[in-house]
Amino acid sequence: MIEKLNGEHIILASNSPRRKELLSSLKIPFQVVVRNTDETVKDGVSAEETAKSLAIKKASFYNDITNIDNTILITADTVVLIDNTILGKPGSHKEAFNMLKLLSARSHKVITGVAITSAKKQVSFDSVTTVYFKQLSDDEIDFYITNFKPFDKAGAYGIQEWIGMVGITGIEGSYFNVVGLPVQKLYSELIKF
């Protein structure tokens, strides 16, 4: 099936090492191109639609690339949603601590929106995974933040890191979605694209 993508120039518009690693695992050749993009969301966009809306918006900053024949652009955005509130990337140790304290002993949703764009069309989708955390102690939260510095991660954690190993009791949905890219769904959509 991957042969269908031969001849296509695939570009991942993401600086995330996790997204690069996951897309590489699909054995699909791609190039990374990163630009500064505006990540503000229009008023009236629901929390559930935010990730997909941002992925589509990011694609608009690459129009010069997507207008080239045989070029496919992949953009994505991941948000953590709890109590209808979006948790972004923490700006400080204190902010990360407060986020993890909020997630402790509760479930939350991780939503990744993806847009696949070419000169001829655009397809977008999202993937939702529910994540369950045990009761985290203040010492566990401090240890994680001090040693892993999760300031580049929505919700202040990486499921693949120490906090995921000791703190996550279960998930419903795609594990890879929580890492940052729902690769199974992306693969299916790329093959159809």
Protein traits:
Maf protein, 8 helices, elongated, 25% strand
Describe this structure in words.
- The chain is of the alpha/beta class.
- α4 packs across α5.
- The model has no long low-confidence stretch (mean pLDDT 91).
- The radius of gyration is 17 Å and the shape is elongated.
- It has one domain: Alpha-Beta Complex (Maf protein).
- It has 8 helices and 7 strands; from the N terminus they run βαβααββαββααβαα.
- The protein is 36% helix and 25% strand.
- β5 and β6 form a beta hairpin.
What's the helix and strand layout?
Elements: E1 9-12, H1 17-25, E2 31-32, H2 47-59, H3 63-66, E3 71-82, E4 85-87, H4 93-103, E5 107-117, E6 122-133, H5 138-148, H6 162-167, E7 168-172, H7 175-179, H8 183-192
